[in-house]
């Protein structure tokens, strides 16, 4: 029974990570741009120089990953709902036996 509960929490953790990873990337890109004083206009970082490197492309890709939330958030919510349903179904099945 303990291993089933552990598996349940693993399934919820994996589903939550899948759902929220693009959000983490977007906030990370915004934080890096804020620390480096890179201007963000209309969700696009114009120029972000760190020494000879221009990080604007990397940060823009990280910001654009926020659009993946449209796909990953419902997928993660479905995973959490499936995990909860699985545990309830398994619990009810064990109670009958």
Write a brief caption for the model.
With 97 residues, this protein is mostly helical. The protein has helices at 2-35, 56-64, 69-96; strands at residues 40-41, 44-45, 49-50, 53-54. The strands form 2 sheets. Strands 1-2 form a two-stranded antiparallel sheet. It has a two-stranded antiparallel sheet with strand order 3-4.
Architecture overview:
- The chain crosses the membrane at residues 7-29, 64-89.
- Keywords: Membrane, Transmembrane, Transmembrane helix.
- With 97 residues, the chain is mainly alpha-helical.
- The protein has one domain.
- Helices cover 73% and strands 8% of the residues.
- The chain has 3 helices and 4 strands.
- The chain has helices at 2-35, 56-64, 69-96, and strands at residues 40-41, 44-45, 49-50, 53-54.
- The strands form 2 sheets. It has a two-stranded antiparallel sheet.
- A hairpin with a 2-residue loop joins strand 3 and strand 4 (53-54).
- Helix 1 (2-35) packs across helix 2 (56-64).
- The longest helix is centred in the first third of the chain and has 34 residues, at 2-35.
- It is elongated.
- The model has no long low-confidence stretch (mean pLDDT 87).
Number of domains: 1
Percent of residues in beta strands: 5-15%
Report the mean per-residue pLDDT as an integer: 87
Fraction of residues in H or I helices:
over 70%
Order of helices and strands: HEEEEHH
Shape: elongated
Number of helices: 3
Structural class: mainly alpha
Lateral strand order in the biggest sheet: 1-2
Amino-to-carboxy terminus distance: 14 Å
Biggest β-sheet strands, sense, barrel: 2 strands, antiparallel
Ranges where pLDDT stays below 50 over 5 or more residues in a row are: none
The radius of gyration over CA amounts to: 20 Å
The overall strand count is: 4
């Amino acid at each position: 029974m303990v291993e089933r509960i552990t598996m349940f929490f693993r399934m919820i953790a994996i589903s939550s990570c899948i759902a929220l990873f693009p959000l983490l990337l977007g906030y990370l890109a915004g934080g890096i741009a804020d620390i480096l004083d890179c201007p963000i206009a209309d969700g696009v970082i114009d120029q972000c120089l760190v020494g000879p490197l221009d990080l604007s492309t990397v940060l823009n890709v990280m910001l654009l990953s926020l659009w993946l939330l449209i796909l990953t958030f419902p997928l993660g919510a479905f995973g959490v709902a499936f995990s909860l349903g699985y545990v309830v179904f398994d619990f009810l099945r064990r109670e009958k036996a």
